[in-house]
Amino acid sequence: PTETAYLHKWTTDNVETVDNTHLNPYGARSICFLIANELIKTEHPLHLYLLEITDVPDKEMLLS
Predict the structure, then answer these.
(1) What is this structure's pTM?
(2) What local confidence, expressed as pLDDT, does residue 38 receive?
(3) Residue numbers of the chain with a pLDDT score lower than 50
(4) Would you say 57 and 33 are in contact if contact means Cβ atoms under 8 Å apart?
């Protein structure tokens, strides 16, 4: 649960101000990574337009 705070937008440097509604760049890329890789495994028509992503989003790079 504490790691999920890094996926969301913070309004200040204080962890208590985390906005649990909106994602930050790391959170957005992480969610896209998960959805795209799972969608590829399905028979949904969208899977034809996706490439498998092998690079997990880099938390340190995206949050700095």
Answers:
(1) 0.75
(2) 92
(3) none
(4) yes
For residue 4 the two structure tokens come to 């999920």
Rounded-to-integer distance, Cα 50 and Cα 6, Å: 26
CA atoms within 13 A on the CB side of 35: 7
Cβ density class 28-59: b for 16+ within 10 Å, e for less: ebbeeeeebeeebeeeeeeeeeeeeeeeebee
Q: What whole-number distance in Å separates Cα of residue 26 and Cα of residue 45?
A: 27
For residue 18, the cross-strand partners are: 10
Structure tokens at 20: 């649990």
